[in-house]
Amino acid sequence: MGLLFLKDFFDLIFPRNCDLCGRSLFDFENCLCKICVGTLPKTLYHIMPSDNDLTEKLKGLTQINKAMAFLRFTKEGMSQKILHKLKYRNKPQIGIKLGNLYGQELFKTGFAEDWDLIIPVPLHPMKQRRRGYNQSEEFARGLSEAMNIPWKPLLIREKFTETQTKKSRIQRMSNVEDVFKLNTQETPNGLKILLVDDVITTGATLCACANVLLANGAKTVDLVTIAAGK
């Protein structure tokens, strides 16, 4: 009875609410309520991972086998709201939750055997210190837990680049040229890599990272993001 009272007291003082809609969470819910999870704008990229609009977009920019995204990004839509909470409202747990959810789907579809290591796209150290975490690393953690595949921050971002938001595709490619390199003396040589980021638009950042990994001996590089925009 005492423990139950204590739990009720803490729930009253520190209520657990859904990070997206604000509803009260049940004990079995973590960070997002079942209603929000059930209405996420999911894609079906994992059904055709090697032949879709993402792989078509990246042709000629890098050598990848598969490209997938968990959510469809729409302006002012649910995916934009959830990404904004993750990146700018100190909600790293959302990244882990989304990684877990998508990782479970990929595991059920048999993708876990396709990768040896998960590598997140890095933030510049100054931006990561300001934010407190790298949202792509949190997504990588969730994927890692769900698929039992290790993850490592094997890449670093050497240069602080301007925001990509209003740049053309060519400008974006130029903006990330020579920005990334390996973080340690450890290399991805001979490994099947899953490279992950929060969102893919033109794919410039992901391609720049993939090219560094391939140049350093990665056997294959596949791409997975939280969301993909047109």
TrEMBL record:
Q: Which domain of life is it from?
A: Bacteria
- SUPFAM superfamilies, alphabetically? PRTase-like (SSF53271)
Kindly name one Pfam family recorded for this protein. Pribosyltran
**Residue stretches making up the Phosphoribosyltransferase domain:** 136-228
Q: Member of which family? A: Belongs to the ComF/GntX family.
- PANTHER family documented for this protein: DNA UTILIZATION PROTEIN YHGH
Q: What is this protein called?
A: ComF family protein
